[in-house]
Structure formats: structure tokens, C-alpha cells
Amino acid sequence: MKNICILGSTGSIGTNTLEVISQHPDKFKVAGLAAGKNVNLLSQQIETFQPPIVSIGSQQLAQQLREKFDPYQVRILYGEQGLIDVATLPEADIVVCAIVGSAGLLATYYAARAGKQIALANKETLVMAGGLIMNELQKRKSQLIPIDSEHSALFQTFEGAKRKDIKRVILTASGGPLLHLPLEKMASVTVQQALKHPNWKMGRKISIDSATLMNKGLEVIEAYWLFKLQIDQIDVIIHPQSIVHSLMEFIDGSMVAHMGITDMKIPIQYALTYPDRLTSPSRYINLSELSRLEFMPPDIKKFPCLQLSLQALRQGESMPIVLNAANEMAVDNFLQGKISFDKIPIIIEKTMQNHCCINLSSLEEIRQVDEWARNQAQNITHSFI
Q1: Domain 2-147 is of which CATH architecture?
Q2: I need a labelling partner for 159 at 20 to 30 A (CA). Which of 143, 185, 314, 368 fits?
Q3: What is the largest CA-CA distance in the chain?
Q4: How many Cα atoms occupy the beta-carbon half-sphere of 268 within 13 Å?
């Protein structure tokens, strides 16, 4: 029986994780939950899974929960410290880090410091603080298992590979909802269009990142830290069917592809059961039903966010933090209807141009750069409003 804490329990990854846990009640137990604002769904999760500790975003929301639940049944915390307390719960065997965006960094960092095995669905954590997080895990001999389907696929492929034999890895991208939209129409893309992913059901922020291909750029940076690869060993290919999640090419010209249906419960379950596997209620691939598998290079002119991500990775030091912060601000402003879709990469690029890279050695320094970049991006955004 493994005790699981879930950070971001009311989001897409969090709810899928709870589904996996409910399908294997003899294998997993919910030890703690943390959520942001969705007090109603968190209440349902408390009633169903009866965790001894939960945390929610604000004191006001925590009070609502305390009025509903017996304090001897569940300890209810809130805010940043509450999140950290759930992430570092002594009884937890695995901490699922599924909080969207940079908000997930702090708790993941403290979970790593506490020596927890981390199941990571928050790619921004490694984009902002890859060196810091991986060093903490190494010092404590802990392990990070990726939940992203592409990185889970690579993680599994690396298990049977000799590093000296690997030429490169290839992350696949569906191309998102705008893959076939002409370049001249990108400026008029609506929020509804950008959110309508053809293959995956995801949260709003990651759906927009998929539409701009920023999500794939962030995944390249994540892969760089996870697998200790050279930058030129990581490639991206558009694969609209999302059946092949990642590929590994060897020095002799052979290639291994990891395939699976578009169901996040599969990589989530693997992260919880590693190194073992359990049967899954998910649908299996029927190869005879696959009419075609397409692959094509990404259109950098139409999706400049991917190129900006590679640029940030090559510049290194603090630049990936700036990239991520500017993207979060630009996406938020687009979702609010304040800017057009085509302004997202422009805001990111201008913010990066205004930054001089610095070497970072602490979480506090990372958060300072993050705050600077957000202010810069917001100031740039005002020029378009």
C-alpha cells in the first residue's frame, strides 16, 4: 500500500490520479490533497477518499471546509504553508505534483528536500529550477517519475537503453487545434478556438500552450533536465494522431517508438506503480484501426514560441525563468480577452530581450527573476491594450 499526496487534486491530472487510485484501492491510499479554489470539488474528494490532511488556497475557503468537516476527521490547512505541509507529509510515499504553472515550484522543491518520490506533471518546475530540483533529489537519493505522456514514454524507453548508444530523442506534438490554420489567420484566433484541443482534454493554460506550441518548448527544457541530454539531442516532430508519444534514435540508425492512446491515466498509473505495472481499464490500441500515422516538422514561423523556448534553453541561466513567466502572463491576458493570440510570442520575445542572464543558486533568486519577468511582461502587454 502506497500513501499518495496530490498537489493540484481538483485539476485535470489530479482528478485522473484519483480515478487511478480508486481503481486500485488495495494498492494506494490518499494521504493528503491540496487544491486552489475549487472548494466544492475538494469537498467531494474529502468525502470520497477521507485524507487526514488537505490544503486549499485561502483562509476563507479553509473556513468553509472546517465548517463542513470534523477537525478530528481531517486537518484543514491553507495557503503556501499548507501546500508545503501536504508536500512534505512524513507518511507520504509519493507526491504527485500537478499544480499548473510556476505556482507548483515551491511545493515540489520542498517535497524534493523532504526526500519524497515525486510524480511530476508540472513541467514549469524544471523549466524554472531544473538544476536546483534535480540536485535536491540526487542528494537525498530520491526519484522523479514524469507524468507528461512524452516524458513518461522516454523514461520507459531509457530503461532498456545504453546512454552511449543514443543519438537523439524526439518529442511528438499533436500540433494543437491550429495546426492547419493559415498564418494570416493566427491574429484572429479566439479563446474558444485555442482551447479546443483535438486529442487531449486539459486545463485552460496548458491548452493555450499547446495551441502556441509553447507546451512542447517547455517539454524540451524539461527533457534536458530529466534525462541529462545535450540540447542538440532533443528534437520535436508534429504527429497529429498523438499515438506515438516519443521516439528514441540510436547511433546505428534504428529507432524505438513508445505508443499509447490519448489517456493520461496510463502515464499517471505508471508513475505510481513504477517499477511495476498494473492492468488498466483504459482502452488499448487496435493497430488494425489506425489508418495512418503522420509526422511533419513544426512550422517555426507560425509557432515562434517553440523557437523562443529553444533560444532560452541555449542561453541558459535565468532565461528559461523569464520565458516561462512572460508566457504565463501573456496566456493569462489572452484568456481574459485583453490581447490577440498573435501577441503571445511577441510579449515573450520582448521580455526576453529586456533581460540580462544571471546565474542562480537559490529558490529566492529564482522567484525574484520570476517576479521581474512578470512585471516586464505586463508592462509590455499594456502597450497592446
Answers
A1: 3-Layer(aba) Sandwich (3.40)
A2: 314
A3: 64
A4: 29
